[in-house]
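INTERNAL AUDIT FORM
Audit reference: QA-55
Scope: verify that the stored structure record matches its stored sequence.
Auditor: D.O.
Record contents follow.
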Amino acid sequence: MQPRDRRFVGYDRRRPAGTRFGFLEQLERRAVLDGGGLLAPLVTTVFDNVVVAPQPAAVAGLRLTLPAQVPNGLPTMARLAAVDAAGLPVLGYSGSATISSSDTAATLPSTVTLVNGTAFVPVTFRTAGSQTLTATDSADAARAASATTTVAAPLVATKLMVLMPTQTRAGVPTTVAALAVDAGGRVVTTFNGTATVASTDTAATLPLIEVIFKAGRATFQVTLATAGRQSVTVASLSDPKVSGTASTTVVAPSTLASFAVVMPPRVLAGEPVRAGVIAMDASGRLIPGYNGTATVTSSDPGAILPGTVTFLNGRAVVRVTFATAGDQTVSVRGGAAGNIVGSATAAVVAAPVLSSFTVRLPRTVLTGVPVTVALSAVDATGRPVWGYSGTVSLTSTDAAAVLPATVTFVNGRAYARVTFKTLGEQSITATSGAISGSGKTQVGEVSVTPPA
């Protein structure tokens, strides 16, 4: 006979009625450890070829667990589980519960939702001593659970730990970090006050307003200006005794000794180029704090270039367009007395001068079939004139040819689609003022030979 209160799960159609599994008649009762409790045992019985499983257990209550001791002001996770009358978890439960605490200052959610019979409750206790957390089933107030824990006394900030590099450069911003710590050196994450910043360097640039701590930490920037040993002090605005100091060695700013000018060794006349300029000290190192200006000149009287350039963090870029062929120089002069000079030389190549156009056609084409014509602008030696971007007119010896009246060059090249209509040798001519060029092709026809 089939046991009562059991739900039909499956039926094996491959086995005839009245037979039994030779290797399995009844699954043993099993239990699986899950956290702090036992899962409800799954009892499955096989009679002949019918498999049955137990009905899910009903929820009888809730279980709430907390660590025995928790920190003050830091998040703690409580675990909530739905259980049956035997105290075993009910994994299929998906209800909700309201959360409350004896600690009126605690931070906690008003409700949580159980998924698969479990929920996690984030809570931050803020009152020292024994405190209780309570969870009440939203569907049945009789189902409730509580857990008690001991909340540690809150950490009290007794000083500020100030951290900064052991060496800084004058005039360069430096990041400073400050930590609020207790007598044991532990960070007090509940410290969210404000603090003032002072320095032994009277010329230093400090925060204009108080720095704000968040979770016991604060960061800010200072720019020290006086060489030597200097210190930065941070003091709590509410309690000046809670303070801290850090020292650093301020290195005097580097003195400008030269400019390094870098540009391509070979450039084309009429084409803009970029020249990089670097402010350097006597050791040939970049001066990152240099933000001065310098004048720019060239040996090429026809060059186009700015009169002055402004440095940013020791670097500047000059855009120059040379006009005269040959070796030409770009010079940068600056410094307090205008006596710091740097230069670079480039070989300026004369720009090619347009002399003619080349027109490229296939050797043979078919009448009535469009072909592509490639045109190039070249100088007297046949080298491409890449800078040419003019417009030329097109003509053909084939009066019936279909072709555009004009084409425009881009970077010294152009293309056109032409359809010849007349048999024999035909040509295409490109003309722009007194400059021209042409190309020839043999136009044929398609002949069809009938089958023998």
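Auditor finding: record pair retrieved intact. Confidence is low (pLDDT under 50) at residues 1-49.
Action required: none
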